[in-house]
Amino acid sequence: MEFLADNSMYVTLIIASLILAGLLLYLARIDARLRRLERER
Fold it and tell me: How far apart (Å, rounded) are the C-alpha atoms in residues 5 and 25?
């Protein structure tokens, strides 16, 4: 736990970037689904 206390800034950045990457992946998957649905019409 000493690493977390000493490097809380880095830990925060890592967590924020993971959340951002997850959101981008989620949006990309939704976009791909919508494109497929629009093509099927």
Answer: 30
